[in-house]
Design a protein that fits this description.
By secondary structure, the protein is an alpha/beta fold. It folds into two domains: 109 residues, Cobalt-precorrin-4 Transmethylase, domain 1 (3-Layer(aba) Sandwich), CATH 3.40.1010.10; 122 residues, Tetrapyrrole methylase, C-terminal domain (Methyltransferase, Cobalt-precorrin-4 Transmethylase, Domain 2, 2-Layer Sandwich), CATH 3.30.950.10. 32% of the residues lie in helices and 20% in strands. It contains ten helices and ten strands. The strands form two sheets. Strands 3-2-4-1-5 form a five-stranded parallel β-sheet, with helices on both faces. β8 and β9 form a beta hairpin. The termini are far apart.
Length: 237
């Protein structure tokens, strides 16, 4: 049977995977997992014990090649992904390659930062385009996107490269004029985890306090309505 299950692990740990995801894993002949798109705090051993399957971690190069689709042509294959599978365009490429090659692919969704960020109290429908701050090189596009969203009154969800801290991210946004030092930002740390933390403060204070917990993301507010302002006060220091 030609089959690939692309299964979301959720934001936090092994308890976030759905019952549907676990059932799919039990049907698999081979199971692979990537850990490069997001930091995940769960135990693959616990999932192995729950499903009786051996889970093999693969590197980015292998998951972005035809490896998974090739395996799915020979056996029922599972591919585990932190968060939700389609939060990263890489995984849609795998799905579309399956369609092109006649391999059946089923996507099992899970929790994602794109919805969990609503716990800030900010309206999801008022978010503009999401951007990512990469580590190691410094393109202009993220900062232009933040400015463009702000001009339209929209909030910006700023994702951080693996290991990048809120302090580092805010420093580069200030440097490029995407935000002002006295401008307010929302820092979301470990969303979906019982120890999650949300901070609403000025960019300058985040830098001075060296907020360095990971994983994290930042929301640059656009035009806030009365309710959003009220909810954000819950996170103000």
């Amino acid at each position: 049977m030609r089959m690939l299950y692309i299964i979301g692990l959720g934001l936090n740990d092994e308890k976030d995977i759905s019952m549907k995801g676990l059932d799919a894993l039990r049907q698999c002949d081979e199971v692979y997992c990537e850990m490069y798109t997001n930091k995940w705090s769960g135990s693959l051993k616990a999932l192995e014990d729950a499903t009786g399957k051996n889970i093999i971690i693969i590197e980015r190069e292998k998951s972005e090649s035809d490896f998974l689709v090739d395996r799915a042509q020979d056996c029922i294959t599972g591919f585990l992904v932190p968060g939700d599978p389609f939060s990263a365009t890489t995984h849609f490429e795998i799905f579309s390659e399956c369609r092109r090659r006649g391999v059946h692919a089923e996507v099992i969704h899970s929790s994602s930062v794109f919805t969990a960020v609503a716990c800030t109290g900010m309206d999801l429908y008022k978010f503009g385009r999401t951007t990512t701050l990469p580590k190691g090189f410094d393109p202009q596009s993220p900062y232009e996107m933040i400015k463009e969203n702000k001009r339209s009154g929209l909030h910006t969800l700023v994702l951080m490269d693996t290991g990048m801290t809120a302090k580092e991210g805010i420093e580069v946004m200030v440097k490029h004029g995407a935000i002002q030092k006295d401008g307010m930002v929302v820092v979301c740390i470990r969303l979906g985890n019982p120890s999650q933390k949300i901070i609403y403060d000025s960019a300058d204070n985040i830098i001075k306090d060296n907020i360095a917990d990971v994983p994290c993301c930042i929301v640059v507010p656009g035009k806030l309505n009365e309710k959003e302002e009220e909810f954000l006060e819950l996170w103000k220091r």
